[in-house]
Write a structure and sequence with these properties.
The complex is a heterodimer of chains A (430) and B (102). Chain A is an alpha/beta fold. Chain A contains eleven helices and 25 strands. Chain A is globular and about 65 Å long. The N terminus of chain B is likely disordered. The chains are: A alpha/beta (430), B mainly alpha (102).
């Protein structure tokens, strides 16, 4: 690759191999270097805590998107309950808040043996350790007729990009009496309660806008889902006869679509369902960077040691968040943030000769069932003999009244402020 | 409060540790305590989710025991401590409160 001096200057590389901000932000001469790829809940949090816990470590954060929408609260955007801006975060701002050098650039090669990365526009870098938090990719080819080029017409809105706005705007055009179909994927996938929160909030939006005769079909590739009893109880109470859940056992799996007509075929069905709007969330796997750099196994996800989230395939590389095999921990923002702190602590300990930290993780997933009501699930995890176990857990009570659901919605909003302040550095205006 | 001041306060709310020697000058916070701060952040949500770094071990133990024995409706904390013994809660409170700087 040939880089002009302008390119080098732009990347801060004209005189030094590594950009200079990381050194200025830290104290004294750096003794180690860590590259963090991905500035979502996992990567941004890890970069922040590496810098804080190990001040003599230079941290370089690389993210290909200049800004992104968070998965959490994106369903509220669909229902018109939050602005897109209120869930959008800027990569440069995140890096500045955390005091780490940040490149908005695409990693085109990650060499997991040499511990080097090559970016599209900023050259190559080597490090003592590399942390990868790449997120998920859609597994195209599993649903006939649906691919990367046409999925925006049946928006999954699952990866924090323009599809969220596309889906929001398309909801306006659904007539009263119309059919909305949500295709829910098989496990594992990002944000397990997401399709069901989406169904709830679309039902809320359609009801509130005089379209109570609409039908929302959740066509599911599995036979159960998180918080199912709670969701179904609330659907009956809030949106009677609007939401129909079709499990896999009843032929719920989406096998084929026609994006030009809006038709959706379920497994075994002779005729398609004609939809006014379909949001098909395809089956998923770890993002392409994880697969191209040999961090994923045959399942498409990345095996890790839960003590420190180091790759089981390539020592020296750590993988965080949704791309990992970390069950029973779900692929959630909270879990990615928690994993990032364990990983940063373990890497800091290793680089500085400190004792390894005890691996424990937390998670809570809130789901809104209306504009003012939410439900949640939480768990506390420990790692024993290389496996993650649930130490304790709990969900919202089925017997909860409206006041409790409203309290949980307020807690969910407070949580969003906290987790984004922690992960991305700034309290975010609503 | 302006944003730059808030950033500064958020930044100093998490202590830094001397590196490069075999032992840090002060013990680094446990990753679990850091995970708690995903909700219990300094300067935001003090009412709903008190900042962990403002709580003493004694106060944390009191809160966790209350969450286990007399949980309020909708308590998230009760889900984390429901199976813990008094001794485990005391140990956890000491760990989580160890970074408190009054």
């Amino acid at each position: 690759m040939t880089l002009s001096r302008r390119d080098l200057l732009k990347a801060g590389l004209a005189t030094a191999t590594w950009p200079s901000l990381g050194r200025a932000a830290n104290r004294g001469k750096p003794k180690s270097r860590v590259i963090v790829i991905g500035a979502g809940f996992g990567g941004a949090t890890c970069a922040k805590y590496l810098r804080t816990l190990s001040p003599t470590t230079e941290v370089l954060l690389i993210e290909r998107r200049s800004s992104f929408l968070t998965g959490p609260f994106s369903n509220l955007v669909l229902a018109g309950l939050r602005s897109a801006e209120s869930v959008t975060f800027n990569t440069e701002t995140i890096g500045a808040a955390h005091g780490v050098k940040t490149l908005v650039d695409e990693v085109i090669v990650l060499d997991p043996v040499k511990l080097s990365v090559t970016t599209a526009n900023s050259g190559s870098f080597t490090a003592d350790r590399i942390v990868v938090a790449p997120g998920v990719a859609m597994r195209w080819g599993m649903i006939e007729g649906l691919d990367a080029t046409n999925s925006a017409t049946m928006p999954h809105a699952w990866t924090g990009d323009g599809q969220v706005l596309e889906l929001r705007d398309r909801l306006d055009a659904v007539p009263d009496g119309g059919t909305v179909l949500i295709g829910a994927p098989a496990n594992p996938y990002r944000c397990p309660p997401g399709p069901y929160e989406r169904a709830s909030l679309i039902a809320f939006l359609l009801s509130r806008s005089g379209r109570k005769n609409c039908k929302i079909i959740i066509a599911d590739a599995k036979d159960d889902f998180t918080k199912r009893a709670l969701f179904m109880l609330e659907w009956d109470a809030l949106y009677p006869d609007m939401i129909e859940w079709l499990p896999r056992a009843q032929g719920g799996e989406v096998v084929r679509v026609d994006t030009s007509t809006g038709e959706v075929w379920l497994r075994g069905a002779e005729k398609p369902i004609v939809t006014h709007l379909a949001s098909i969330v395809p089956p998923q796997q770890a993002a392409e960077l994880a697969t191209s750099s040999d961090l994923a196994d045959e399942s498409g996800w990345c095996p890790i040691n839960p003590a420190d989230f180091e790759s089981k395939k390539h020592p020296g590389v750590h993988v965080l968040g949704d791309a990992t095999i970390a069950a029973p921990v779900p692929k959630s923002a909270f879990a990615a943030n928690s994993q990032a702190k364990l990983c940063a602590s373990a890497v800091a300990a290793r680089l500085n000769g400190w004792p390894a930290p005890e691996p424990r993780l937390l998670n809570t997933c809130y789901s809104f069932v209306s504009d003012t009501q939410a439900i949640s699930v939480s768990a506390f995890y420990g790692a024993v003999d290389g496996r993650i176990s649930v130490l304790s857990d709990g969900v919202s009570p089925l017997t909860g009244d409206t006041a409790l659901r409203e309290l949980e919605a307020e807690q969910a909003k407070a949580w969003y402020v906290s987790i984004t302040a922690d992960s991305f550095g700034l309290p975010h205006a609503e | 409060m302006n944003k730059s001041l808030l950033c500064l306060l958020l930044a100093v709310a998490t202590p830094t540790y001397a590196a490069g020697s075999a032992k840090p000058k002060a013990a680094p916070p446990s990753p679990l305590a850091l995970s708690c701060t995903g909700c219990h952040q300094p300067l935001v949500n003090a009412k709903e989710m008190p900042a962990l770094n403002m709580l003493t071990p004694a106060k944390i133990a009191e809160s966790l025991l209350a969450a286990r024995d007399k949980p309020k409706a909708g308590s998230i904390m009760a889900r984390f401590v429901t199976k813990m013994s008094d001794a485990q809660i005391a140990s956890l409170a000491a760990e989580l409160g160890s970074t408190v700087r009054p």
